[in-house]
Write the structure tokens for this entry.
Amino acid sequence: MITGDHRFYKMAYDEQMATYSVHAVNLSTYPLGETDKIVTMFSAERGMIRAVAKGARKPGAKIGGRSEPLNVNQYLLAKGRNLDIITQAESIGSFPRLRHDLTRLSFALYFAELTQSFGQGLSDESAAFFEYLGLSLSRMADSEEDPVLLSLEFELHLLDELGYKPELTICIACAEPMTEYRLAIFHHDSGGLICSDCHRGKNQESVQEHFSFEYGEGAQSNAVLQERKYKPYAGHVTTHITPLVWKRLVTMSSGLKHDQLETNASEGMIRANQAARKLIQTYLEHRSSRRMKALDLIDV
Ligand SMILES: [Zn+2]
């Protein structure tokens, strides 16, 4: 039987033990009650955390600005029954230059959005990813580097950390090495390329084996069966890919140093960079089953 005294000691013990300190980047916030906010953050020590910033929406509250997305703080948090509570926030960084550039701000918010979507899978590497996120935000805010390429680098790094690195060197169906003359599509479910032969249905066996193709129920019409015989992945999410886009992805994902200051990049190269980045965004969205919204306001 638990007596009142025991309960008192247990509470005192819990309170004493239940504060902890983290370094974290704020990813998003939403309002709670009259004046509070819930802050989702990625911390070096514990990965993803959701915590309440009490009074953060009161005019002039010190925690107000510090709890905004993209701010980096050292927090003291108290364990709560449902959500933990921010008891102290000391600013480490806030990237003020982002506020003057909508494109760079949108990309920085996109980094936060991606981190929020995939952060649970990064807990084991939280310290390294926290550092990488901070560095990426700082490059987006303060360098002259191309935001599209910075973003592509971030996206590929994230995929690598999560173990979803795209397969760009061979065809995922027939396993033959990929060349620019055999490129066809990127298959988002498999996270890799399909060569033109497999795509056109020349290598039916390998394609059907890869996609575990079944002829289906008798209810399916001959036309559907015929179609599926050649494109067993019809209806899956795929993206056509050009040699320039492919080369950009191969260069970036193999970690080769790309020229971030491509001030003289041709119109074709700029478009290829954008297409490569969009393809990887689609792949990430497919992986998370969530559409990213941070870049909706800008044309990239
Ligand atoms: Zn193939």
